[in-house]
Amino acid sequence: MRSKTLTLAAVGAGVALALSACGANSAAPPAGGGGTSAGSTSAAASGGGVKVGVILPETATSARWEGFDKPMLLDAMKAQGLDADVQNAQGDTGKFAQLADGMITQGVKVLVIASINSDLGKTVAAKAANAGIPVIDYDRLNLGGTSKYYVSFNNTKVGELQGQAFADALKSKQGAQVIEIEGAPTDNNATLFYNGQQNILKPLYASGALKLVKSQPIDGWDNQKGGNTFEQILTQNGGKVDGVVAANDGLAGAVITILKKNGLKVPVTGQDATAAGLQAILRGDQYMSVFKPIKQEAEAAAKLAAALAKGDTATADSIATQKEHDPTGNRDVPSVLLEPQTITKANVKLVVDQKYVTAAELCVGDVQSLCQAAGIS
Ligand code: BGC
């Protein structure tokens, strides 16, 4: 049942993106229909200069934000004729608010935010709304917020992919002892990843197939804190662990450092298919990662932004045909929710083929020969 729903959702997203492509073409001088205002015509005709502000949350929690999101957002916005200012708040809530204030004062036509936490995102969205600027929540949904649209992945599915791969890796180890190192409790995504993991793991804990030692959220997705916390839990458990659910590649890397220090090698999950994560997978230090096609996420955000910059909510609605539930605000937010994919040693090549990571950055030092064995060049 679940997989059927997800498949339909994926098809829906595909149709929405195809529709939005038509919408983008019609941004050129109005082809009749009468709904286009003079203002939007001149903005579209100029083919640029329509300012969109984008604020990303952090650099240290994951290599994705600067490595994938930023360049892909810049490209996608440009392709839509938008002039995007993409900034990163470096995990500093004050800086995030300041960047938002600056963009609102400059008069951006649309604001795209991946907030550090929901309250911050909520405040920024309210300020922007006061100034008549539409806001798109990017990747992270701000609970209790007012953003009209949300672009992300099926984040529960991300967790399910982690849980499933992890369960597969430990299936012959009855009663394997598991430590879970989770994302920031203030990031709704971390909750969704956790929920997805538990959909798979809870029955296994209940049956005794796996044994949960401890599950610990990590404030701010702080990788170092993740490593330290893992080390403490490991020590408290007498140095015994058979597998670690780590919510992303950054946390996985910190966990692997501690495992190595203790002479241990066990299945560890991850997410984001970062170069470091993929190297760890090729080395056999990390069992899996989750590849999220961020290019599609950036493109969906850009298409939505292009429509909203023209005040064209009909096109925006035809793009954001899915819904994400906000349990705090008790509303369903029109969304684009893309499909994540499991990466193990068997398909690391896929991420290189899709040009997220180059063979040159991946296949260095000891990883060179591993790349060769994996057919990556
Ligand atoms: C993103 C993940 C990322 C994490 C830490 C989450 O909101 O969805 O891709 O690893 O934040 O930056």
Automatic annotation (TrEMBL):
GO terms for cellular component: outer membrane-bounded periplasmic space. Residues 1-27 form the signal peptide. GO terms for molecular function: carbohydrate binding. It is found in: Cell envelope. Its main location: other. Keywords: Signal. InterPro entries: Bact_Solute-Bind_Prot2 (IPR050555), Peripla_BP_I (IPR028082), SBP_2_dom (IPR025997). Gene3D superfamilies: 3.40.50.2300. Residues 55-312 form the Periplasmic binding protein domain. It holds the Pfam family Peripla_BP_4. It comes from the Bacteria. This is D-xylose transport system substrate-binding protein. It comes from Actinocrispum wychmicini.
